[in-house]
Write a structure and sequence with these properties.
The complex is a heterodimer. Chain A is an all-alpha fold. Chain A folds into 2 domains: 89 residues; 108 residues, Transmembrane di-heme cytochromes, Chain C (Fumarate Reductase Cytochrome B subunit). In chain A, 68% of the residues lie in helices and 2% in strands. Chain A has 10 helices and 2 strands; from the N terminus they run H-E-H-H-H-H-H-H-H-H-H-E. Chain A has a two-stranded antiparallel sheet. By secondary structure, chain B is α+β, with helices and mostly antiparallel strands. Chain B folds into 2 domains: 35 residues; 197 residues, Oxidoreductase, molybdopterin-binding domain (Sulfite Oxidase, Chain A, domain 2, Alpha-Beta Complex). Helix content of chain B is 28%, strand content 20%. Chain B has a 4-stranded mixed beta sheet. In chain B, strands 2-3-7-8 form a 4-stranded antiparallel beta sheet, with no helix packed on it. Chain B has a two-stranded antiparallel ribbon with strand order 6-9. Classes of the chains: A mainly alpha, B alpha+beta. Chains A and B meet through helix 1, helix 2, helix 3, helix 4 and helix 8 of A and helix 1 and helix 2 of B.
Chain lengths: 233, 246
């Protein structure tokens, strides 16, 4: 028996779930999204786009300490948040574009996110409500597929509405598409809200099935996560 | 035997991974709980400033002189337009037509100063455009006055220079890029809603730039200069993006 045999055995038992490129893009995206949300919440607080008077708790926003900013910048805390927002914007957009291109070219979208139909979504959704939807690493059920398409769409809409707020003159056709400057801010807000909603579910499910986190960090898990059958009782 | 060692190695690796994971997780939780915000650190500040310079260049690249800001109808004009400055309206500088002179300096041939009377002889045009504040609010207003580009040509400004800077009676200062200064909708606004510009909106004139955020539109302008050295600006020196184009 050669030394390599057990290693091969171990590898064969592993499921390669996420190639390194996808994992890097996932975590770059996670960081960029967090910076965008944190700074965006503070920017929102300075002039809320929605008629209801609510603001985000100051300690959840990104942009530095009020008094420190006042001391070093002689400014009340908006400049830092904007600087973060317009810096992370490049990371988010470039990473998102790379992900879309790789997703199409590598067949990741076709293989993992398709096919999906309203019928399959309804079936899996109600199965999940009854607690009868199994989870198999590396294989997405219809609810997951719809969720991933949904968050990709939400990120896209948030990026485009964000561009239309940033450049309402140079990109005025885009701004018009979002119902004008004022309404584009509302769209941008609800795009963010959809992403945050996804994040809550995403993190909750990750906490329920921690192996998905291991897979997203190391690419593989050390043993078959579940027996071949998908449905757990 | 070999297998046993390898398995053990795998186990050790697994434990290390788990430890690493747990440590990185707790680091994240710790920074969240303590509200540790890295924004104010010097190196973070310099990276953000670097990105802001990059955004200046990107926005200058996106800027097209022929792209006009959307215009609106008379009925869209907000009559009670918001007063906005870093001091209350009562403290706004009250410049008198008799004493006021617009000073010109820098890369300009004819540096003679201009009285209000003489400024009013320049051909004016009106615009109904949206004023967008960096804070996020916006209002539609009607401003009238001569295009800044026409004025710069008339006084023999070096139009190949990079920046047009301004100083104001309230101590405010700032600058814009030459392409924006020459944009057809960049005007020296002598009027608001067809009335002589009130004191609180910048009498005798504000530079109205619908392709820039509000803070790039100076009021109570007393000096205009042309230069190749980046003059910065009041809010830009406090961390806001310099180009701030729309």
């Amino acid at each position: 028996m050669t030394a390599s045999t057990p290693i091969e055995t171990t590898s064969a038992r592993d499921a390669q779930l996420h190639p390194v490129g996808r994992r890097i893009m996932h975590w770059v995206n996670a960081l960029a999204i967090l910076v965008m949300i944190g700074s965006g919440w503070r920017i929102y607080n300075y002039y809320p786009a929605l008629p209801w008077h609510f603001g985000f708790p100051y300690y959840l926003t990104l942009g530095g300490d009020f008094t420190v900013t006042e001391a070093i910048n002689n400014e009340d805390g908006l400049a830092n948040a904007l600087a973060w927002h317009f810096a992370a914007m490049w990371v988010l957009v470039l990473n998102f574009l790379a992900y879309l291109i790789v997703g199409v070219v590598s067949g990741h979208f076709r293989r993992d996110f398709l096919p999906v139909s309203p019928g399959a979504f309804a079936r899996d959704f109600f199965a999940a409500l009854r607690g009868r939807l199994g989870h198999q690493l590396g294989e997405y059920n219809a609810v997951q597929k719809v969720f991933y398409w949904g968050v990709l769409a939400a990120i896209l809409v948030t990026i485009l509405s964000g561009l239309s707020i940033w450049k309402p003159v140079q990109l005025k056709e885009l701004t018009w598409l979002f119902g004008g400057y004022e309404f584009a801010r509302v769209v941008h807000f609800f795009g963010m809200a959809a992403i945050v909603g996804f994040l809550v579910v995403h993190l909750a499910l990750t906490a329920l099935v921690p192996k998905t986190l291991v897979a997203m960090v190391f690419g593989r898990v050390s043993a078959p996560p579940h027996p071949k059958k998908g449905v757990l009782r | 035997m070999t297998r046993l060692i390898l398995d053990r190695k795998a186990t050790v690796a697994g434990i290390e991974r788990r430890l690493f994971l747990r440590q990185s997780l707790s680091l994240g939780v710790l920074s969240m709980l303590t509200g540790c915000d890295i924004s104010d650190q010097d190196d973070v500040q310099s990276v953000l400033k670097l990105m802001s310079r990059w955004n200046d260049r990107a926005q200058a690249f996106l800027f097209r002189r022929e792209a006009l800001a959307p215009t609106y109808g008379e009925s869209d004009v907000v009559r009670d337009f918001r007063y906005n400055a870093f001091f209350p309206a009562a403290d706004a500088p009250k410049l008198s037509a008799a004493d006021y002179r617009l000073e010109l300096s820098g890369l300009i041939e004819d540096k003679r100063s201009w009285s209000v009377e003489r400024l009013y002889t320049l051909p004016q045009q009106g615009q109904i455009t949206r004023h967008v504040c960096v804070e996020g609010w916006s209002m539609i207003g009607k401003w009238s006055g001569p295009p800044l580009g026409d004025f710069l040509k008339r006084v023999g400004a070096d139009l190949s220079a990079k920046y047009v800077g301004y100083q104001c009676a309230d101590g405010y200062y700032g600058s814009i890029d030459m392409p924006t200064a020459l944009h057809p909708q960049t005007i020296m606004a002598f009027k608001f809603a067809d009335q002589i510009l009130p004191v609180k909106y910048g009498y005798p004139f504000k530079v109205r730039i619908p392709t820039k955020l509000g803070f790039k539109n100076p009021k109570w302008v007393t000096t205009i200069f042309v230069t190749n050295r980046m003059p910065g600006g009041f809010w830009e020196d406090r961390g806001y993006n310099w180009f701030s184009g729309s």
